[in-house]
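#dry-run=false #mode=assembly
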Amino acid sequence: MSYYQHKSSEAPPPPPLPPGQLRLYHVHMNPYAHRVRLVLEAKRVPYELHALDPLRLPDWFREKNPRLKIPVLEVPTPQGDRCLFESIVICDYLDERYPQNPLHSSDPLVKAQDRLLIERFNELIKGSLECFDTNFTFGGDQILQTVDVFEKELAARGTAYFGGSSAGMLDYMVWPWLERLCLLRCLRPRAFDAKRDAFPHMSQWGHAMQCEAVVKQLASSPERYLQYYRSARAHAMGYCL
Amino acid sequence: MSYYQHKSSEAPPPPPLPPGQLRLYHVHMNPYAHRVRLVLEAKRVPYELHALDPLRLPDWFREKNPRLKIPVLEVPTPQGDRCLFESIVICDYLDERYPQNPLHSSDPLVKAQDRLLIERFNELIKGSLECFDTNFTFGGDQILQTVDVFEKELAARGTAYFGGSSAGMLDYMVWPWLERLCLLRCLRPRAFDAKRDAFPHMSQWGHAMQCEAVVKQLASSPERYLQYYRSARAHAMGYCL
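#status=ok
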């Protein structure tokens, strides 16, 4: 995994990709990029990482990706490098393009239901943003309602992970936000533990996920997230969370 | 294809599905249901249609689908009937579940790019809603900008359809709104023809789509759409367009 760092919009673009090599343009600590990295690592697809400063996007990146969405996966083709964005589209692409360790269910109905749950999870993402915007005053209800939907779903599946006996696409798509939620424990440990106990399946799932090799490799501590959020808040960087 | 009609929330639920039979709950003239019907017909999957009145949803439908999204595809399984919603999730499910006449590209990169274009097309949908809400005063720019993106894409592909030599998933996903756009010709024929001439590839594509068997079978005339829109507007039914 190579690593690039650009801090100025004058920095030169990275070189064209060698055949078969992927490049992920990302922003540090961004949960959508976290999704893609979990999938890249789970599928053991080689890639290089190129970090961007969202406040100073280089001009060549604007040309490459006029809609300025991040993360972007750059894919080499005989007709030139192609850019994919939208974390879910990128992750589904990776799962189809690289057959090893399939993450989606091979049953189209389960796959469709998982896609609907990934979409339902957007309510938790909105709740997290509202929590952040209101210094943890609002947004909690949306988060708890969504966790409750996932609690019931996991109980109904009767498996350790949503993907069965190992983490699958749905597990990885929701994990980045649930890993970050643990920062709430730093703020209100008792309230956090009480809420957690109300969701026994999700709580056990969270422990299992934290012990998973790929999750571990990319994990940050609750303290690190809290520090990042405080700094982002101070710099009005809410849009890149 | 069977047909049910309910006008009261007291109407009884339809019977459980026989194995292998699908049921689509839809609202008349709804473009999202139009998408699903195009795919069902293109793939020659047998299904029954169950029309709902969005202003008087039966109680059993609320139980079946607490989020009240329409259209819904009901799928029989040994564990009971399952409901799928979100037109794109339903259509992708159908394309995976029924291998005949595949609509998505077999190249994962093309499929991912098509998914991004389907998402980009939401700008045109928003523009159409704004047109409708403002009696055709605003929303036109969003529509034209999106058509321009698709014009350039079709020119770059150099094929009659986005799917190649025949209509594919992207063609069917955008068609319902482009069929409806022709109602603008009833209002301002000269302005409409002038705009259309600015998009020669999309114009030719529109003609080809109109002659396609599945599209023809489900088509309504521009006059019919205009009449429907006027009536929906009079009844403040914008949300179900």
